[in-house]
Amino acid sequence: xxxxxxxxxxxxxxxxxxxxxxxxxxxxxxxxxxxxxxxxxxxxxxxxxxxxxxxxxxxxxxxxxxxxxxxxxxxxxxxxxxxxxxxxxxxxxxxxxxxxxxxxxxxxxxxxxxxxxxxxxxxxxxxxxxxxxxxxxxxxxxxxxxxxxxxxxxxxxxxxxx
Length: 162
Known about the structure:
The chain is an all-alpha fold. Helix content is 83%, strand content 0%. The radius of gyration is 16 Å and the shape is globular.
Protein backbone atom coordinates (compact mmCIF):
# COMPACT_ATOMS: atom_id res chain seq x y z
CA UNK A 1 0.00 0.00 0.00
CA UNK A 2 2.83 2.40 0.81
CA UNK A 3 4.43 1.79 -2.58
CA UNK A 4 1.08 2.27 -4.34
CA UNK A 5 0.51 5.56 -2.55
CA UNK A 6 4.01 6.88 -3.22
CA UNK A 7 3.80 5.79 -6.87
CA UNK A 8 0.41 7.44 -7.27
CA UNK A 9 1.65 10.66 -5.64
CA UNK A 10 4.74 10.71 -7.87
CA UNK A 11 2.67 10.27 -11.03
CA UNK A 12 0.18 12.94 -9.93
CA UNK A 13 2.99 15.38 -9.12
CA UNK A 14 4.65 14.74 -12.47
CA UNK A 15 1.35 15.00 -14.32
CA UNK A 16 0.40 18.19 -12.49
CA UNK A 17 3.57 19.93 -13.66
CA UNK A 18 3.46 18.27 -17.06
CA UNK A 19 -0.04 19.60 -17.65
CA UNK A 20 1.26 23.11 -16.88
CA UNK A 21 3.94 22.80 -19.55
CA UNK A 22 1.47 21.28 -22.01
CA UNK A 23 -1.15 23.96 -21.45
CA UNK A 24 1.30 26.80 -22.05
CA UNK A 25 2.82 25.02 -25.05
CA UNK A 26 -0.64 24.49 -26.55
CA UNK A 27 -1.53 28.12 -25.89
CA UNK A 28 1.49 29.24 -27.91
CA UNK A 29 0.73 26.63 -30.53
CA UNK A 30 -2.86 27.66 -31.21
CA UNK A 31 -1.98 31.35 -31.06
CA UNK A 32 0.67 30.77 -33.75
CA UNK A 33 -1.90 29.31 -36.17
CA UNK A 34 -4.26 31.03 -38.56
CA UNK A 35 -7.97 30.63 -37.87
CA UNK A 36 -8.89 27.01 -38.62
CA UNK A 37 -10.51 23.95 -37.13
CA UNK A 38 -7.04 22.83 -35.98
CA UNK A 39 -6.55 26.08 -34.09
CA UNK A 40 -9.94 25.67 -32.41
CA UNK A 41 -9.17 22.07 -31.46
CA UNK A 42 -5.77 22.93 -29.97
CA UNK A 43 -7.35 25.71 -27.92
CA UNK A 44 -9.88 23.14 -26.64
CA UNK A 45 -7.01 20.78 -25.80
CA UNK A 46 -5.30 23.55 -23.83
CA UNK A 47 -8.46 23.98 -21.76
CA UNK A 48 -8.62 20.23 -21.12
CA UNK A 49 -5.01 20.28 -19.91
CA UNK A 50 -5.92 22.99 -17.37
CA UNK A 51 -8.86 20.84 -16.22
CA UNK A 52 -6.55 17.82 -15.83
CA UNK A 53 -4.21 19.95 -13.76
CA UNK A 54 -7.06 20.86 -11.41
CA UNK A 55 -8.05 17.21 -11.07
CA UNK A 56 -4.46 16.20 -10.32
CA UNK A 57 -4.27 18.84 -7.61
CA UNK A 58 -7.54 17.64 -6.10
CA UNK A 59 -6.16 14.11 -5.76
CA UNK A 60 -2.82 15.31 -4.45
CA UNK A 61 -4.75 17.19 -1.76
CA UNK A 62 -6.79 14.06 -0.94
CA UNK A 63 -3.54 12.12 -0.55
CA UNK A 64 -2.00 14.82 1.67
CA UNK A 65 0.65 15.65 -0.94
CA UNK A 66 1.73 18.84 -2.66
CA UNK A 67 3.12 19.69 -6.08
CA UNK A 68 6.91 20.01 -6.27
CA UNK A 69 7.79 23.70 -6.53
CA UNK A 70 11.05 23.21 -8.42
CA UNK A 71 9.34 20.96 -10.96
CA UNK A 72 6.59 23.56 -11.32
CA UNK A 73 9.12 26.29 -12.11
CA UNK A 74 11.01 24.11 -14.59
CA UNK A 75 7.86 22.99 -16.39
CA UNK A 76 6.45 26.52 -16.45
CA UNK A 77 9.63 27.58 -18.27
CA UNK A 78 9.47 24.59 -20.62
CA UNK A 79 5.85 25.27 -21.52
CA UNK A 80 6.38 28.97 -22.10
CA UNK A 81 9.49 28.30 -24.20
CA UNK A 82 7.75 25.67 -26.32
CA UNK A 83 4.79 27.98 -26.78
CA UNK A 84 7.08 30.71 -28.09
CA UNK A 85 8.98 28.37 -30.41
CA UNK A 86 5.71 27.47 -32.15
CA UNK A 87 5.88 30.89 -33.81
CA UNK A 88 9.18 29.97 -35.50
CA UNK A 89 9.31 26.17 -35.72
CA UNK A 90 6.61 25.70 -38.29
CA UNK A 91 3.53 23.55 -38.08
CA UNK A 92 4.73 19.95 -38.18
CA UNK A 93 7.14 19.72 -35.23
CA UNK A 94 4.71 20.99 -32.55
CA UNK A 95 1.98 18.70 -33.92
CA UNK A 96 4.26 15.65 -34.00
CA UNK A 97 5.72 16.11 -30.53
CA UNK A 98 2.33 16.95 -29.02
CA UNK A 99 0.93 13.67 -30.31
CA UNK A 100 3.91 11.71 -29.09
CA UNK A 101 3.64 13.29 -25.65
CA UNK A 102 -0.10 12.69 -25.41
CA UNK A 103 0.41 8.97 -26.08
CA UNK A 104 2.76 8.80 -23.08
CA UNK A 105 0.36 10.79 -20.91
CA UNK A 106 -2.52 8.38 -21.44
CA UNK A 107 -0.32 5.46 -20.33
CA UNK A 108 0.79 7.34 -17.21
CA UNK A 109 -2.80 8.05 -16.22
CA UNK A 110 -3.66 4.36 -16.70
CA UNK A 111 -0.71 3.42 -14.48
CA UNK A 112 -1.88 5.92 -11.87
CA UNK A 113 -5.39 4.44 -12.02
CA UNK A 114 -3.95 1.00 -11.22
CA UNK A 115 -2.23 2.41 -8.12
CA UNK A 116 -5.41 4.24 -7.07
CA UNK A 117 -7.35 0.99 -7.46
CA UNK A 118 -4.88 -0.79 -5.17
CA UNK A 119 -5.59 1.94 -2.61
CA UNK A 120 -9.36 1.52 -2.97
CA UNK A 121 -9.84 5.05 -4.29
CA UNK A 122 -12.56 4.36 -6.84
CA UNK A 123 -13.41 8.01 -7.52
CA UNK A 124 -9.75 8.69 -8.23
CA UNK A 125 -9.62 5.67 -10.56
CA UNK A 126 -12.59 7.05 -12.49
CA UNK A 127 -11.00 10.50 -12.81
CA UNK A 128 -7.66 9.05 -13.92
CA UNK A 129 -9.23 6.78 -16.52
CA UNK A 130 -11.25 9.69 -17.86
CA UNK A 131 -8.08 11.77 -18.18
CA UNK A 132 -6.36 8.83 -19.91
CA UNK A 133 -9.27 8.68 -22.36
CA UNK A 134 -9.05 12.41 -23.11
CA UNK A 135 -5.27 12.25 -23.56
CA UNK A 136 -5.78 9.35 -26.00
CA UNK A 137 -8.25 11.53 -27.94
CA UNK A 138 -5.60 14.25 -28.08
CA UNK A 139 -3.13 11.73 -29.49
CA UNK A 140 -5.63 10.65 -32.15
CA UNK A 141 -6.15 14.28 -33.17
CA UNK A 142 -2.43 15.01 -33.49
CA UNK A 143 -1.77 11.71 -35.23
CA UNK A 144 -4.48 12.52 -37.77
CA UNK A 145 -3.07 15.95 -38.59
CA UNK A 146 0.51 14.71 -39.14
CA UNK A 147 -0.50 11.58 -41.08
CA UNK A 148 0.99 11.64 -44.55
CA UNK A 149 3.40 14.49 -43.83
CA UNK A 150 6.70 14.03 -45.67
CA UNK A 151 8.75 14.28 -42.44
CA UNK A 152 6.72 11.70 -40.54
CA UNK A 153 8.72 8.59 -41.57
CA UNK A 154 12.00 10.24 -40.55
CA UNK A 155 10.60 11.47 -37.24
CA UNK A 156 9.19 8.02 -36.43
CA UNK A 157 12.58 6.42 -37.06
CA UNK A 158 14.44 8.96 -34.95
CA UNK A 159 11.98 9.62 -32.11
CA UNK A 160 9.52 6.73 -32.18
CA UNK A 161 5.74 7.01 -31.91
CA UNK A 162 4.12 4.49 -34.14
